[in-house]
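Lecture 7 notes: from sequence to structure.

We start with a single chain of 305 residues. Read the sequence below before looking at the structure.
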Amino acid sequence: MKRSTAILLCFVLGAVGWESQSRAEERTPLFGVEAHGKWGFIDRTGKMIIEPRFDSVSNVVEGLARVKLNERYGYIDETGTSIIEPTFENARDFSEGLACVYNKENWGYIDRTGRYVIEPQFIQAGRFSDGLAGVSLRDKTGKIWVLKFGYIDKTGKWVIDPQFELAGDFSEGLASVGVSSKVGYIDRTGHLIIAPTFDGAGNFSEGLALVQIRNQSGGMKVGYIDKTGKIVIEPRFDEGWWFSDGVAPVSVGGKWGYIDRTGTFIIHPQFDLAVPFHAGLGEVKVEEKWGYIDKGGKYVWNPTN
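Now the structure, written as tokens:
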């Protein structure tokens, strides 16, 4: 998928994780679209704002969009002007004024001028949220090197020492962490608030978080919990993403639709993939083509490839 969309779900077993989610209120309402093999941006009416010329694009976050050109990543503003030249092997969206970028072997953090404020040194790195970012270093236990995750502040100082198997972004005051092959949630002091009982867990958004639970037959299903750890939407979906604009995309039987906070489908499963709504539109995939729908399920931009 060349469209750089985002999800965070910490799977302790299998270590499957998509890029970190960006808060909807931080995004400028431009939407990435593909035309003739290149990516540009439209507004919510479908009008082309930035002509397609990139190999891939992400959402506009904090006024900048991450773009890929000639196998390198950089950043543009809402007009399409290059702000940080594409020189990085990998990169993530800006969050709280910093973006984590990858060159050669490690991740570090740059500011909006492209200057490193935290030098590349981490094996894995997440976005800053609530002033903290989850990062990992290799730790030698006997003769075996393992990854340990903790949290740093914007100076690169450890605030929560490396001790977890996985570390998600902080969101709404909590972050998902891996402990003994299960996932729970900590607060900003590192104290466990929700016990690690889940097989996978995502960020809190609009008061709910996606969790993955193994059923009696050994299969995995996803549902949603509140901040007390109580399951409020039973785990009956195959896959899912976070809530945004009051709805969340989930899949059943290989097709994706959107549910409300009661777990009721408001757009029935029909897409090959669906992405959380932002600025009133949801991105959906149909037969390798991407488009945008409104909350009524009507296409604003018909699927193209």
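The two ends are 11 Å apart (CA to CA). Keep this in mind for problem set 3.
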